[in-house]
Amino acid sequence: MTKPTYPIGSFTPEAAQRWERIPQCLQERILANVWCGRCLGAVSIILDTAEMMEDALVLQGKCRDCGGNVCRVVEPEPD
Ligand SMILES: [Zn+2]
What is the residue-averaged pLDDT of the chain? Predict the structure, then answer.
């Protein structure tokens, strides 16, 4: 059994619930594909916080390559 990937960072309870519903392969893809405006490319995020804004999950953290601030919005599931 695989546990959900929990990046180090602080999740609000709602964000944690949303994160757990994302399949692990997709979680990894989300964390490894964050746009960085300084690196001008997709980078891995070092997660600081995760919270819900409206229906979207917003992940905020730092670029693993340059340390700049990056964020990633995970749109609500279509259902
Ligand atoms: Zn960067």
Answer: 89
Q: Are 45 and 79 within 8 A, CB to CB?
A: no
DSSP 50-62: EEEETTEEEEEEE
Distance in Å, CA 29 to ligand 1 centroid: 17
Segments forming the whole domain that contains residue 21 = 10-74
Is this model's pTM higher than 0.70 or not? yes
Q: Tell me how many domains the chain contains.
A: 1
42 C-alpha to ligand 1 centroid (Å): 8
Cα–ligand 1 centroid distance for 75 (angstroms): 22
Is 4 inside a domain boundary?
Answer: no
pLDDT of residue 77: 72
In a domain? residue 5: no
Instruction: Report pLDDT for 76.
Output: 80
